[in-house]
Amino acid sequence: MSQAPKLNKNQKFSTNMASAHELMLLGKQGKKGNQSVARYALPAFNVTTYQGIDAAVDAFQTLGASGIVAFSNSALKHFGNGDAIKGLARASEHVKMLAKEGNVKIATHLDHGDYLSDSGKKVVDAAIECLTSVMADNSTDHKNETHTPLEVNIEATRAVVDKAHAKGVSVEGELGVLAGVEDEDTQSEVSTYTDPEELKDFLTKTGVLMLAPTIGTMHGPNKGKPGQKVKLNIELANECLKIADKINSDIIFVAHGASTLYPNVIEYAVNQLKDMGTLAEATKKWNNFVGTDWDQIEGLIKAGFCKINTDTENRQTYLAALLGAVKAGPATIDIRNFDKVTYKALYHSYLQKLIMAGNYGVWHEPKIDVKNFKFTLS
């Protein structure tokens, strides 16, 4: 196999748009403007609505943060009324419009695009034309619920790199299988750790600069058993980083299934449900949610994980806020009232995660006091 093409860093995107890799590399190198700081990460916010996009971009602007707005295949179908390609055009143009109005840099990213199925190829190819970053997730054979043979994964991922890198679009690959359910298009009952022996071969042959190794994270709201702390394989993460850095120090790792759990959000939602009186089963589900503790995520950031995918916690935040709004005004017919409440909750949730990850003050000084910011629902 010939040498993989390098990422075209001279590609010009729409105003204030950049590849995800360009922004993540600043985090790995600890660069904020002219300052050198500790390594930080970019939470990549998976969004499913225009309100989610607006809240994320507003949070980036408030903090002077680098931004990644990510779209799953099912989210794109939602934006396109069932047509993912149409959804790509609509959602990406909305982000571009908002980016032009601000003064931070933002990347748009396709999450879990596959290049194994015909439908997956169509979406990935369209994303290369519309977005600034794509994920080529060819690690899982969903029909047989097992991992894809390494050579198949390499060949499919390399095909995406060949197309995307020439256009300046960064590519994220995946090695290993992550268990759990993110949405109807991304789920697996099995999980396999990334094999360090396979890592060198994959990185060398595909040329990806962004990789999602599997080190114990899980998709969905139940990342472990209630009452038990999620334990990630930080030792494996550091071993993988040493291998990657020897190949190319610009390679950056991505943490999937890394949503944290905000106790105040769970408590707020449970209180709303209790007051409604008849939703005991829903209350039980909320109490059983298990997230990834932040100290574990901090360990990953030190091991070169500078993109932290964030989805479940924002869905939880949105739903908790909506429950409170409905309880407070169950006969309210001006639905803009509910939109205002859920927007505010998402916006604050995004601010909290960006601050936790250290992604603020990159493009300008934050407009709020990050040290004293406290995310609450009311």
Would you give an account of this structure?
The protein has 13 helices and 14 strands. It has a domain at about 20-260 and about 290-310: TIM Barrel. The chain is of the alpha/beta class and about 375 residues long. The chain has helices at about 20-30, 50-65, 75-80, 85-100, 120-130, 150-165, 195-205, 235-245, 265-275, 280-285, 295-300, 310-330, 335-355, and strands at about 30, 35, 40-45, 65-70, 105-115, 135, 140, 145, 170-175, 180-185, 185-190, 210-215, 250-255, 305-310. Helix 6 packs parallel to helix 7 (about 195-205), helix 7 (about 195-205) packs parallel to helix 8 and helix 9 (about 265-275) runs parallel beside helix 12 (about 310-330).
Secondary-structure map:
Elements: H1 20-29, E1 31-32, E2 35-36, E3 42-46, H2 50-63, E4 67-71, H3 73-79, H4 84-100, E5 106-113, H5 118-130, E6 133-136, E7 140-141, E8 146-147, H6 150-164, E9 170-175, E10 180-183, E11 186-188, H7 196-206, E12 210-213, H8 234-247, E13 252-255, H9 263-276, H10 280-287, H11 294-302, E14 305-310, H12 312-328, H13 336-357
Parallel strand pairs: 3-4, 3-14, 4-5, 5-6, 6-9, 9-12, 12-13, 13-14
Antiparallel strand pairs: 1-2, 7-8, 10-11
**Widest sheet: strand ordering:** 3-4-5-6-9-12-13-14
Calculate Rg over CA atoms.
20 Å
- Average pLDDT level: 88
Largest sheet: 8 strands, parallel, barrel
Q: How large is the count of helical segments?
A: 13
What is the compact description of this entry?
The protein is of the alpha/beta class and about 375 residues long. The chain has 13 helices and 14 strands. It has a domain at about 20-260 and about 290-310: Aldolase class I (TIM Barrel), CATH 3.20.20.
